[in-house]
Design a protein that fits this description.
Radius of gyration: 19 Å
Number of helices: 1
Order of helices and strands: EEHEEEEEEEE
CATH superfamily: Quinohemoprotein amine dehydrogenase alpha subunit, domain 2
CATH topology: Lipocalin
Largest sheet: 8 strands, antiparallel, barrel
Distance between the termini: 52 Å
Number of domains: 1
Strand content: 35-45%
Length: 169
């Protein structure tokens, strides 16, 4: 990649010559990168609506539960959610591959899908709103993706991952 200044990405300039640098790939994604040991909190925004996302500890099949809190001018409303992590873009999760999957398989396992129960109907998961996105592979402290309402896509992002401290005995 060449920047507008003429500099090349991944190279150090020495006079008029470039000395190549090696950029190592990030280490493999782990469960802890998404949810830490005792869960993780993120600040989330979807279609301009601010809130707080809590992902509880993951189970052995890389799923778990959490909450999404919506900030309103007069209160905070909290909804339950369930999630699936450690997936690849090509992996079908409840019948859908990841957003933006164009046919190139990946083994990064940086995909997350979570469903928010805005209708408060725990026995009916079919009415939960789906959020499908990707963890940032370098910083691992944020994610971005898409959600749908009435089959119309809207963007979301979650930043500022903060690991829950867990129980102190």
């Amino acid at each position: 990649m060449v920047f507008p200044t003429g500099e090349r990405a991944g190279a150090a300039r020495i006079g008029r010559r470039y000395r190549g640098t090696i950029v190592l790939p990030p280490p493999p994604i782990t469960v802890g990168d998404f949810v830490c040991q005792y869960g993780a909190n993120y600040e989330i925004v979807w279609d301009g609506i601010p809130g707080s996302l809590f992902l509880g500890p993951a189970n052995p099949t890389y799923g778990g539960n959490g909450t999404l809190s919506v900030y309103t001018p007069n209160s905070t409303i909290t909804y339950n959610l369930r999630y699936q992590i450690m997936a690849n873009p090509q992996d079908p999760i409840v019948g859908q591959q990841g957003p933006g999957f164009l046919g190139t398989s990946s083994s990064l396992q940086h995909r997350i899908v979570f469903w928010v129960d805005f209708n408060n109907t725990p026995a009916n998961q079919s009415d939960d709103q789906r959020f499908d996105g990707y963890l940032m592979t370098r910083t691992r402290n944020a994610m971005a993706g898409v959600t749908w309402w009435n089959n119309v896509p809207f963007g979301f992002y979650a930043t500022g991952k903060n690991c829950s401290p867990g129980t102190i005995f």
